[in-house]
Write a structure and sequence with these properties.
A hairpin with a 2-residue loop joins strand 8 and strand 9. The radius of gyration is 21 Å and the shape is globular. Helices cover 35% and strands 17% of the residues. The N terminus and C terminus are likely disordered. Helix 5 packs across helix 15 and helix 8 packs across helix 9. The chain has 398 residues and is of the alpha/beta class. An 8-stranded mixed beta sheet has the order 8-9-7-10-6-11-12-13, with helices on both faces. A 5-stranded parallel beta sheet has the order 2-1-3-4-5, sandwiched between helices. The chain is built from 15 helices and 13 strands.
């Protein structure tokens, strides 16, 4: 699985030689590693914005390449690690496939999110409020190996079993003695903490963190979250009310900061994305790759294609959900949606009751469960290449 920084450089499903969070490799090429002489390009005609970004880049010890417009930049992307594009720039970035951050002031914050969506940008930085975050982001460009991988798990259709798979993958990761965080992205799902016996454990939940502003200390975040079954848990809790938690810019920025801190605090972050457009937009943008769970039925494959079109650009692996019909195997399911196959999620009797009693580690040790958890973790850590269709990693056209 590639990281967000390298996802646009490496085909979906390409194996990586290093752990999650390391930059990807293209066939026959060295890793995408900006190195100590990292430069970023800033495209804006605003002197005020140029000044703000200049101060941040100086603090992050990265070089700047300034351009007032996309045309003035000349499309010379080869020597830059990222592009910061101002909210005053209307055009796109033809030919650019690297990290992109939309920068601007609070007066332009509403339009900046629209611009980010149009460009497929990785982040939005409202200055000067986000100066510290942007400095940290630029600093990490000099060492992309820092931080964990963030894996998003989503169902291709309702009831596919994505929450169960996300829980099993997180439990399997913790058995490897990897410090693991399981994130509940489904605000209307009833609380993932109930599914892993974490409901009564003290600690912070999403509603507490979405009111935060500014940078979050990774160590303090890890110390504040509940732990259950050997892994940390970030869930919604029972007090969360109706309505979309990600409906405002402050909550979106807070969610991004939470996952940024989680990268630095954990060895792996597994996000059960849920299926709402809001959660996919808010949390999916922070994921380095996605596992899509697809039951072995034609209708489920058709529904999964719709889901895949809404995911941000990043590698995708397919897990087929059994039981599979006559003449249907995992590769056929993956072929129907056009992405590599990681394996089949088996039916395990009594799995929900076992997880709800807090015995996730026990379930993760079962042979049937290991048969799917280990290939998924192998894909995340680059030890194994997914098999199946679409070797070039291209997505099906809408």
């Amino acid at each position: 699985m590639t990281t967000r920084n390298s996802a646009r450089h490496v085909p979906n499903g390409s194996p990586l030689p290093d752990v999650a969070g390391a930059p990807g490799r293209e066939a026959g090429r060295a890793p995408w590693l900006p190195g100590p002489g990292t430069s970023v390009m800033v495209i804006t005609a605003s002197p005020a914005l140029q000044g703000e970004v200049g101060r941040v880049s100086a603090a992050a010890a990265v070089g700047l390449v300034m351009a007032d417009s996309v045309e003035q930049s000349g499309g010379r992307w080869d020597d830059v690690a990222a592009i910061l594009i101002g909210s005053d720039v209307a055009g796109g970035l033809p030919g650019w496939r690297g990290p992109t951050v939309v920068v601007g002031t609070s007066q332009d914050s509403a339009s900046m999110w629209q611009q980010a969506s149009r460009l497929g940008a990785d982040r939005v930085a409202v200055l000067p409020d986000s100066a510290q975050w942007l400095a940290n982001y630029l600093t990490r460009l000099r060492d992309p190996r820092e931080g964990a991988g963030v894996l998003g798990v989503i169902g291709g259709c309702g009831g596919a079993g994505a929450s169960t798979l996300a829980t099993l993958v997180a439990a399997g990761s913790s058995l490897r003695t990897t410090q693991t965080l399981l994130v509940d992205g489904d605000e209307w799902g009833g609380g993932l903490d109930l599914a892993v016996a974490g409901d009564g454990i003290p600690g912070l939940r999403w509603p507490d963190l979405l009111n935060a502003s500014g940078a979050i200390n990774p160590e303090q975040l890890a110390a504040s979250l509940p732990q259950s079954g050997g892994m940390s848990l970030l869930s919604w809790g029972r007090e969360h009310g109706a309505g979309s938690a990600f409906a405002n810019l402050r909550a979106l920025a807070a969610a991004a900061e939470v996952l940024r801190a989680a990268r630095d605090a954990y060895g792996l972050v597994v996000v059960d994305l849920g299926r709402s457009a809001e959660s996919v937009a808010a949390l999916g943008a922070q994921c380095d790759g996605f596992v899509v769970v697809v039951p072995g039925r034609l209708r489920a494959a058709a529904a999964a294609e719709c889901v895949l079109r809404e995911l941000p650009p990043a590698p995708v692996g397919v897990v087929a959900r059994g039981p599979l019909g006559d003449g249907v195997d995992a590769r056929l399911v993956a072929d129907a949606v056009g992405f590599p196959c990681l394996g089949v999620m088996p039916h395990v009797k009594g799995i929900a009751d076992t997880l709800e009693s807090g015995r996730g580690a026990e379930v993760a040790r079962r042979r049937k469960v290991r048969a799917i958890v280990e290939p998924v973790l192998g894909w995340v850590y680059g030890a194994d290449a997914p098999v199946g269709p679409r070797a070039d990693g291209r997505r099906p056209r809408p």
